[in-house]
Amino acid sequence: MSTQPPSRTKFYRNKRDGKVMGVCAGIADYTGLDVSLVRIMFLAGLFMSGGSVLPLYFIAGWVAPDQPREFAMEGPDERRFWQQVRASPQQTSRDIRSRLRDIDRRLADVEHYVTTENRSLANEIDGLR
């Protein structure tokens, strides 16, 4: 029985970059915001709520799973990509489709260049035989 790979669109605690339980770092990873900004917003929310947000922080730290090890090795580009997927899946799929269309067009141009009657290229190929 095989297990499913961890989901990149799920919220995880990030203990590696976290200070207390990794909740603010996990929120920063999930949303794409800077972790310092998330911590400042949490402290502002803590003071404005009179401390009633603190139990929510500990509940989130207790309930949320740890970030899987395989996510720790991803680079900044991959991390940014998955943050964009979480923020706007439809826009990300449109961007990917557009990039693939562009690659397909360039490959078609190369194929056209190679397969058309190109005397200099044909002479070079004949010279290799």
Structure description:
This protein is mainly alpha-helical and 129 residues long. It is built from six helices and no strands. The radius of gyration is 24 Å and the shape is elongated.
In short:
64% of the residues lie in helices and 0% in strands. It is mainly alpha-helical and 129 residues long.
Descriptors for this entry?
single chain, 129 residues, mainly alpha, elongated
Q: Based on DSSP secondary structure assignment, what is the total number of beta strands?
A: 0
Uncertain ranges? none
Class derived from helix and strand content? mainly alpha
Mean pLDDT: 82
Main β-sheet, in a few words? none
Distance from N terminus to C terminus (CA atoms, Å) equals 54 Å
- How many helix segments? 6
Question: Helix amount, in percent?
Answer: 55-70%
Task: Describe the SSE topology.
Layout: H1 23-31, H2 35-48, H3 54-63, H4 76-87, H5 89-115, H6 119-128
